[in-house]
Amino acid sequence: MNIISLLPFILVLLSFALLPSVAPRLWQRRMEPLTLGLVGLAVIIAVVLHGPFAAFAGLWRATFEGFAPFIAVLMALYVLSGGILIAGGPWGRPLGNLMLLTLGTLLASVIGTIGASLLLIHPLLAANAARHEKRHLVIGFIILVGNVGGALSPLGDPPLLLGFLRGVPFFWPTQHLLLPMLGITIPVLALVYGIDRRLAAREPLRAPSKLVLRGGLNGAMLVLFVAAMAVSPMLPHGQAVLTGLALVLIGISEWTSSKRIRARNRFAWTPMREIAVLFFAIFATIPPVLQAVSRVPMGRDPALWFWASGICSALLDSAPTYLMFYQAAGPDLMRLLPSFSAGSVLFGALTYLGNAPNLMIRAIASRRGVKMPGFLGYAAVASAILVPIFLIETGVFFR
Length: 399
Prior knowledge:
Layout: H1 7-22, H2 24-50, H3 52-82, E1 85-89, H4 94-127, H5 135-144, H6 158-165, H7 172-200, E2 209-214, H8 216-231, H9 238-256, H10 259-264, H11 270-285, H12 287-294, H13 302-315, H14 318-329, H15 333-346, H16 356-367, H17 375-397
Antiparallel strand pairs: 1-2
């Protein structure tokens, strides 16, 4: 593996991590050409190393077998959730916010981390709109609803779905990952609630009101689409079917959704366009990195597999990370499965790139005026919260 082939992916990560803080105007105005330019660099390097046919075949696979289905699913969930209004209710006060975070964490294993995140981030932000400081709620939401909550079923997170399709029993995650999941959920909920109570003492709070639900058609289509996501891997050409269904539902939602609901949710296509460009660059530049990681010799220590799979998941992508470790486990699969399953799911909360909902939540929160930390700032905060918990869980569950 030529190390220069890793350069475009490293530059994509560095540009996303540094430029929004170091050169915000340049990033805002030139994000798309800069990012796509790195894709072009990856293609040029691949042409030099492997020839034009292999280079463009790799780009074709990355675009149409990886990126296109992924972004279609993300767009469908974004559009459908943006057409559902959840207003009123107890949210906006510390106990109500705690209830919403708990509900989202549980719901993530039923409709997936993406579905739960995009459905509930709007009512969380709307209920706390009058408050000056709400970043702690969004960071807790990313950790719990966008990541940790998906650990209990194959419906919750793509890595676990891949395991189910390869013969891991459906309720295996519930049996083996419940305690590690609770080991993170309970202290993070307690931390967010404590911070929220402290801040609530000096901030305006919304009075509880009657819970209002609107956008029933989008809600029904969201349930249909989540069910389709669960069964599509079992169908012939399931990925193509799911992509086609996503496009159909996007069209129906755009045609039928209430403009008032869209406006109250502050729905806009700009965040999705930026995320699409970034993830296209990741899909196009990541194959050499995954190949390099798969060749690193691994021991058989469960603690090592927990941390190695977790770090790869946080910086690369959880689904291919899971597959790499699944294949490498060999005859020790069942002994090592809890370690790399937990690492692939739980460590995704460490960075904005660790799981698909993370960037979406950040973009929606930023659009609603929340001053979210940058890539490195979020990684520092999430690591300060989670790394001590991971160290404890290593000694308790993955020795």
